[in-house]
Design goal:
The complex is a heterodimer of chains A (336) and B (226). In chain A, 68% of the residues lie in helices and 0% in strands. With 336 residues, chain A is an all-alpha fold. Chain A is globular and about 60 Å long. The termini of chain B are far apart. Classes of the chains: A mainly alpha (336), B mainly alpha (226).
């Protein structure tokens, strides 16, 4: 058995098995996130939400998926066919690709690479292509305007996310995601770096095009923004990609600030719970806040969005990087 | 063996994509081929063991620069037939520039290959047991911090220059100042008037009513006629 696992075919088989073991739960989580969002929003608005299909409407995501599959795929006249179909695939692919480096428990990452955080940053910065290509290939004014908004928005907020990541890296001294979690054994970074966590979370909302920053699809002015021309499974892929990105950003927040798989206190009742369960609980808590924000805040105006990103977050996070570096240097806590 | 094959695969795709950048008819397709080039170059960096450079290439060039390219190209209203007219005129110039670059590359590679002492010129060999992120960081921020800061300053000057060149002070724009808006909020209060009494404030300042127009001088129609 060990001989087989060491051979190239064995390595390949093992990687495929690991990938399936990670992606199948992620996909189920995506399906149930759509259900949870409708349930939570309904509870916040004193409604019932999905309650007909299955117990508590739990089978609703699958009913939706079957309905989507039955619909006709429409490609508009004048659309760039290849790119039009490639854009939703790209969005979904990138949302799945990033999971390769996420450590769910100590040493449970599929690829435990040295520059894991840079890999995640690179993948999340590619997400804009799905949107921009969809907007252009649709050959529609609404879609195009949505795509342009989205491109500007995502590029702007990546800058502050980058600086937030730099602050965390200063405290860790490594770009490896497992090392980042291990560095939080004494204290989770959310406590010393609370302002950066807030900035990261708000930027994550903007990066995933979620309310109150869902301008790319602002239905009151752009109908549905960049995916207005999409139907059937191509629309579903955008939809699933958005939710998978939300889970990914929550996982990233968990790893960077909430101590990944670590229990809140290193004492008996907390240590009985296995690491992946803690990880999932923290991700779920972040996702709840994503939905809570959507139920609470109205949509930002476009100029206010840009002002917040460039004039508030960027200077503040830059200041905080300098401050963190100075404190670490003066107190001698700088990791070797 | 597998690594060698993969290297040639990525190198071939890189060159093919580069050719497509130049020959694609639609500029948007050109930019997408360019992105493919960046990806393959990142893969080649990974083969060379430069994982930091590979990731930075994807983040900076694919994630930011190419997005701006795509942005601009999509906004432009390009007339394709006009673009093709220029091809005959610019082809020799492009060929010469490309030829010079190729020649330089060949010369550098040849000199590197044949000079025995070339390896000694490598100023900063990667130290043992240190990841290349750390090694690069040490060179940039510790050994050459002043040069690094200087290059940063040059970029800052370029940025300020670009802003100064394009900034126009337009008249009549309405600016929103969130600070004043937030500061003002305490002036607005809610009151609960007595039922049937209504609310009447004596000190409220309303804009003065417009001055009554001067009454038109009555034209005397009576008695003037004969």
């Amino acid at each position: 058995m060990t001989e087989f696992l060491a051979s190239p075919a064995g390595v390949l088989a093992l990687t495929v098995a690991q990938t399936l073991a990670l992606l199948v739960p992620v996909l189920i989580a995506v399906a149930y996130l759509t259900w949870a969002e409708r349930k939570v929003l309904a509870a916040m608005q004193l409604r019932q939400g999905p309650a007909v299909v299955g117990p508590f409407g739990m089978l609703q995501p699958f009913a939706d998926a079957i309905k989507m599959l039955m619909k006709e795929t429409i490609i508009p006249t004048g659309a760039s066919r290849l790119l039009f179909l490639a854009a939703p695939m790209l969005t979904f692919l990138l949302a799945m690709l990033a999971w390769a480096v996420i450590p769910v428990n100590d040493g449970w990452a599929i690829a435990d690479i040295n520059v894991g955080i840079l890999y995640l940053f690179a993948i999340s910065s590619l997400g804009v292509y799905g949107v921009i290509i969809a907007g252009w290939a649709s050959n529609s004014k609404y879609a195009f305007l949505g795509a342009l908004r989205s491109a500007a928005q995502m590029v702007s907020y990546e800058v502050s996310i980058g600086l937030v990541i730099v602050t965390v890296l200063l405290c860790v001294g490594s770009l490896n995601l497992t090392e980042i979690v291990r560095a939080q054994e004494t204290v989770w970074f959310v406590i010393p770096l609370l302002p950066m966590f807030v900035i990261f979370f708000i930027s994550a909302l903007a990066e995933t095009n979620r309310a109150p920053f869902d301008l790319p699809e602002g239905e009151s002015e752009l109908v549905a923004g960049f995916f207005v021309e999409y139907s059937s499974m191509s629309f579903a892929l955008f939809f699933l990609g958005e939710y998978a990105n939300m889970i990914l950003m929550s996982a990233l927040a968990t790893i960077l600030f909430l101590g990944g798989w670590l229990p809140p206190l290193d004492i008996a009742p907390f240590t009985w719970v296995p690491g992946p369960v803690w990880f999932a609980l923290k991700v779920a808590a972040c996702l709840f806040v994503f939905i809570w924000v959507r139920a609470t805040f109205p949509r930002f105006r476009y100029d206010q969005l840009m002002r917040l990103g460039w004039k508030v977050f960027l200077p503040f996070s830059l200041l905080w990087v300098v401050l963190t570096a100075a404190v670490l240097k003066l107190t001698g806590w700088l990791p070797a | 063996m597998i690594a060698g094959l993969a290297f040639y695969f990525f190198a071939f795709v890189l060159i093919a994509a580069a050719v497509m950048v130049v020959t694609a008819r639609n500029p948007v397709h050109s930019v997408i081929w360019l992105i493919a080039c960046f990806f393959n170059a990142a893969a080649l960096f990974l083969f060379a063991g430069a994982e930091f450079l590979a990731m930075i290439l994807v983040i900076v060039y694919v994630g930011a620069v190419a997005v701006l390219f795509l942005f601009v190209v999509m906004m432009l209203d390009v007339d394709f037939s006009q673009l093709r007219q220029g091809f005959q005129r610019y082809a020799p110039l492009g060929g010469v520039v490309g030829g010079i670059l190729l020649l330089e590359l060949v010369l550098i590679m040849a000199a590197w290959r044949f000079a025995g002492e070339a390896e000694a010129f490598r100023a900063f060999p990667v130290p043992e047991g240190v990841g290349n992120t750390e090694a690069l960081g040490a060179i940039l921020y510790t050994d050459h911090i002043y040069l690094f800061q200087l290059s940063g300053l040059i970029l800052l000057v370029a940025m300020i220059g670009a802003i100064v060149l394009t900034l126009r002070d337009r008249v009549g724009t309405k600016r929103q100042d969130p600070a004043t808006q937030i500061a003002r909020s305490s002036e607005v209060t809610l009151t609960r008037p007595e039922l049937g009494q209504g609310i009447r404030r004596e000190d409220i300042q309303r804009p003065l009513p417009p001055a009554p127009k001067a009454a038109p001088k009555p034209v005397d129609h009576e008695g003037g006629h004969h």
